[in-house]
């Protein structure tokens, strides 16, 4: 099969428009592009207030050029604007379809190459000249269509499952809000659950991508919508685990980040049962599943967010102390209402967790096919 250079078939789009056209519902930066080929998350946290911004159109392929090993990529489904640290690729040859270009650019081969040829150490940046020298196989148009159709069909299923989960969690959040209005009083969080911190790795202990029995759960494993990426997970050896074995998080416990990106909330499922926990997060263990679900949705709610934000301290490096978490004021409902709440939300949460496993399977199939085909 013919090998060609990217620059001979693809151009980087650099059309600029006034910053007034940039809106957070369509502005793409390295911040809201999600790692591990998880597309983009709108709205953007901020948009430029001066100067020019870059324009992108439907079908353009946007790739973060900062820390390329995070594999941030999105094929645009709407026009918009993007930052200068995001590259915009478009085919310039009738022999290369935009869809096939997309699966080439989301392959490990491409991201590994960009990482290898990048410049800088602390925050490596892709070398545009080197990027355009990247070589890839160029099959016939018929083959390009078959390959891209297969990959993109999987990605549509992944996206659909994520949207279903978003809708299920919205229903769960609404159920919590309705029940929270029936509160009969307030209690400190420490009276409802135990709160324990994670553990820093022993000095010199390495993380590895080689899968072991012991994943090490970090804040960076989470996307901004609070979903962990098993694909990005790092692991520790049995020897290292023995030294920090008391600092694990289990299925059914609530994860809460407390340093840096504070306030990521998750309910741990079976995929991460007994994972070692970073020192930058805590686990919240309730005695019953109903209370675990209640606290999980509480921390997602406006009331929970207020407690998290108001008790966070620091400027350069923000931190939420465990003692402050234990002191959270939580509105409680009667035991009868709690059981009724659990009967409603438990099926919703169980469906979310089941869908996560299905998404993982689809992602693994997609990534394996990309490795084989590209």
Description of the molecule:
Helix content is 36%, strand content 19%. By secondary structure, it is of the alpha+beta class. The protein has 2 domains: 3-138, Adenine-n6-DNA-methyltransferase TaqI, Chain A, domain 2 (Alpha-Beta Complex); 181-332, Adenine-n6-DNA-methyltransferase TaqI, Chain A, domain 2 (Alpha-Beta Complex), CATH 3.90.220. The strands form 6 sheets. Strands 2-9-6-7 form a 4-stranded antiparallel β-sheet. It has a 4-stranded mixed β-sheet with strand order 3-5-8-4, with no helix packed on it. β16 and β17 form a beta hairpin. α7 packs across α10. It starts with a strand and ends with a helix. Belongs to the type-I restriction system S methylase family. Residues 27-168, 188-329 form the Type I restriction modification DNA specificity domain.
Q: Sketch the major β-sheet.
A: 4 strands, antiparallel
**Judging from the principal axes of the Cα atoms, what is the shape?**
globular
CATH architecture of the largest domain: Alpha-Beta Complex
| Rounded radius of gyration (Å) | 23 Å
In short:
Residues 27-168, 188-329 form the Type I restriction modification DNA specificity domain. With 374 residues, the chain is of the alpha+beta class.
SSE blueprint and pairings:
Elements: E1 3-5, H1 6-9, E2 10-12, E3 16-18, E4 27-28, E5 52-56, E6 61-64, E7 73-75, E8 80-82, E9 86-91, H2 98-105, H3 108-116, H4 128-131, E10 135-137, H5 141-180, E11 185-188, E12 193-197, E13 215-217, E14 234-235, H6 238-243, E15 248-249, E16 254-257, E17 265-267, E18 275-277, E19 281-286, H7 289-300, H8 302-310, H9 322-326, E20 329-332, H10 335-373
Parallel strand pairs: 4-8, 13-18
Antiparallel strand pairs: 1-10, 2-9, 3-5, 5-8, 6-7, 6-9, 11-20, 12-19, 13-14, 15-18, 16-17, 16-19
Helix pairs in contact: 2-5, 5-10, 7-8, 7-10
């Amino acid at each position: 099969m013919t090998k060609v250079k990217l620059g001979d078939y693809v151009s980087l789009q650099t059309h600029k428009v006034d910053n007034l056209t940039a809106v957070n519902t369509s502005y793409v930066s390295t911040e809201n592009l999600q790692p591990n080929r998880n597309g983009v998350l709108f709205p953007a946290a901020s948009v430029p207030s001066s100067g020019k911004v870059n324009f992108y159109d439907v079908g353009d392929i946007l790739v973060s050029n900062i820390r390329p090993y995070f594999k941030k990529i999105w094929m645009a489904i709407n026009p918009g604007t993007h930052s200068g640290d995001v590259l915009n690729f478009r085919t310039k040859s009738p022999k290369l379809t935009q869809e096939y270009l997309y699966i080439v650019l989301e392959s490990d081969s491409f991201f590994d190459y960009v990482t290898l040829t990048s410049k800088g150490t602390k925050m490596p940046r892709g070398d545009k000249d080197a990027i355009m020298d990247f070589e890839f196989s160029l099959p016939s148009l018929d083959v390009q269509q078959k390959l891209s159709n297969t990959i993109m069909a999987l990605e549509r299923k992944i996206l659909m499952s994520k949207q279903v989960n978003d809708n299920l969690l919205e229903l769960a959040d609404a159920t919590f809000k309705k029940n929270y209005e029936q509160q009969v009083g307030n209690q400190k969080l420490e009276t409802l659950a135990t709160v324990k911190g994670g553990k820093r790795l022993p000095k010199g202990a390495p993380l590895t991508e080689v899968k072991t029995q012991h994943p090490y759960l970090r804040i960076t494993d989470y996307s901004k919508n609070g979903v962990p990426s098993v694909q990005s997970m790092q692991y520790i050896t049995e020897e290292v685990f023995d030294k920090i074995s008391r600092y694990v998080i289990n299925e059914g416990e609530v994860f809460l980040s407390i340093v840096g990106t504070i306030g990521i909330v998750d309910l741990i499922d079976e995929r991460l049962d007994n994972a070692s926990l970073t020192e930058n997060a805590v686990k919240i263990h309730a005695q019953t599943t109903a209370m675990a679900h209640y606290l999980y949705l509480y921390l997602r709610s406006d009331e929970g967010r207020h407690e998290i934000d108001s008790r966070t301290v620091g400027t350069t490096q923000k931190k939420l102390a465990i003692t402050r978490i234990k002191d959270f004021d939580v509105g409680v409902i009667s035991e009868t209402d709690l059981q009724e709440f659990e009967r409603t939300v438990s099926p919703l949460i169980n469906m979310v967790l089941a869908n996560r496993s299905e998404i993982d399977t689809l992602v693994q199939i997609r990534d394996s096919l990309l490795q084989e085909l590209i």
